[in-house]
Design brief:
There is one protein chain. By secondary structure, this protein is mostly helical. The protein has 12 helices and 2 strands; from the N terminus they run H-H-H-E-E-H-H-H-H-H-H-H-H-H. It has a two-stranded antiparallel sheet with strand order 1-2. It is elongated and about 75 Å long.
């Protein structure tokens, strides 16, 4: 019998998630904007991790009220680099510790919203039919409300706490993520590698998680960075409205709310917390721009 003329063509090995991540980091070095954003985010992350070492004072300790930036504590000789607030707490220490709360609850809430939104979007885009109809209508109903109104309704109803903030962000953000994932899935489900997996008899969950989701990672990573910036602003705004994380631990938005009446005479009490929020959001947006460049090259 003649040998078959069709030679088996070996498929390239699938790159692991660690390899793809390392490749993305290498590409990020080619984006100056992305590197600046990554540096800002990394600086805040390190400040939050090493807050006990970096903060010059206890963030909740009452020392000397109404001290301007650069004032010196006559008792200890320590400098209030950013001044103190109306009850004498060191602003620099509160900003450093406040970054911990933002960098804990922000990523947790964003990641949880992505888990829910990705699950909904994959199911709607892959199965279509009544799955798509039901999930799309649910997302349309939620998205018809102003997002911030949903935050206020949920937190006002169930109280201000870290858990309720996370739940409110999931409830308000998951439908938007679902729409993005659904659109990507509708496009990717018609690719040859998905058809090959279906021919092999792979389970739909395997196809969605292994064949479709990794190939949609570029737009989702960029959106995640941008969405994390929105969540940072949301946490700060809720704190300003008195609906944020409960005191006495520092919260950037709460710091602005506590001292806003004194802003004309002591602007440093609100300027520095606002700069902290703005810098972190700027870093996340620049990082998203860099990752967008990576997704084009990768």
């Amino acid at each position: 019998m003649a040998a078959s003329t069709e030679a088996a063509i070996p498929l390239p090995p699938r790159q692991s998630g660690l390899v793809r991540f390392a490749r993305s980091l290498a590409l990020l070095r080619e984006s100056p904007v992305g590197m600046v954003g990554a540096g800002i985010v990394l600086a805040w992350a390190l400040a939050a991790i090493f807050a006990p070492l970096l903060a010059p004072f206890d963030p909740n300790a009452t020392i000397l009220p109404f001290q301007r930036p650069g004032a010196v504590d006559p008792t200890t000789g320590h400098t209030f680099w950013l001044g103190t607030d109306k009850i004498g707490r060191d602003i620099l220490s509160r900003i450093i510790y406040g970054g911990r709360r933002v960098l804990i609850y922000g990523p947790i809430a964003t990641a949880a919203a992505y888990v829910v939104g990705i699950a909904m979007g994959l199911a709607a885009g892959y199965f279509r039919g009544w799955w798509d109809a039901v999930l799309s209508r649910v997302s349309d109903i939620v998205l018809s409300f102003p997002i911030f109104v949903l935050y206020v309704i949920v937190i006002s109803t169930y109280g201000a706490s870290g858990l309720n903030i996370v739940l409110a962000i999931i409830f308000a953000s998951a439908p938007g993520i679902m729409r993005i994932v659904r659109g990507l899935t509708l496009d990717l489900r018609n690719r040859d590698y998905v058809a090959a997996a279906q021919t092999r008899g792979e389970h739909p969950i395997y196809i969605m998680l292994v064949e479709i989701l990794p190939n949609a990672r570029g737009p989702l990573i960029v959106d995640a960075c941008l969405r994390l910036g929105y969540v940072t602003i949301t946490i700060g705004t809720l704190g300003f409205l008195g609906l944020g994380l409960p005191p006495p631990d520092p919260d950037w938005g709460g710091m602005v709310n506590e001292n806003r009446a004194l802003a004309p005479a002591f602007p440093h009490m609100i300027v520095y917390p606002c700069l902290a929020i703005s810098s972190l959001v700027l870093g996340l947006n620049l990082l998203a721009d860099g990752l967008r460049e990576i997704s084009i090259k990768d």
